[in-house]
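ok so I'm stuck.
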Amino acid sequence: MDIVFNCPNCEQELAVDQSGAGSQIECPACGESITIPAAGKVTTGPLPVAPPPPPTPAPSSINTSAAAKVEMHLKVPVRDKPAEPLIGKPKPPLEVVQKGAGKKIRIHTIRRASCIESGHDKFDEKVSDFLQIVGEGSIVSIHTINYEQFDVGVQKIMTDYGILIVYRG
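replied:
not stuck anymore, here's the structure
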C-alpha cells in the first residue's frame, strides 16, 4: 500500500511506497527536504481520483482572463526607405538578355480535337498561326502528345493527338 501525504512546505500531494516511511526525500515540486511520515499517521490506500479539469472558457472570455491582461512591449523597426535585399541576384550578361532569356518560359498545348470546325481539320493552320505569333527565336522545344478522351456522341474512349510547344514569352 502507498502512503499518501502532503508536503509541509508547498502542500504538494505525494504518494510513496510503505517501505519508505521515516526516510528523507526531496519534494519534486519545491525541492525541500522532507521526512516521509509513518503509515499510521496518514490515510493509506490508492491515490484519490483527480477532479475533472474546469471547462475551457469560451473564446469571448479571453478579455477577462489573466492572459489578456499581460502587456507586451515589443519594438518594431520603422524605416523611411525600403530595406536592402539580404541576398542579391546577379544580373544576367547582356548577350543573354538580347537572346530573350529574360522572358518567362511558357507552355501552350494544341489538341487536334479542338481544331475541327464544321467537319474540317484545321490543326495544321492553328499550329502554324501560333508559331508565327511566337516567333522562331522564342521556341524552346516542340513535342507531340497522344491523349484519350471520352466521346459523348459514340460513347467510346477515343485516342487523339496534339502538340505541346515550350517557348519564351
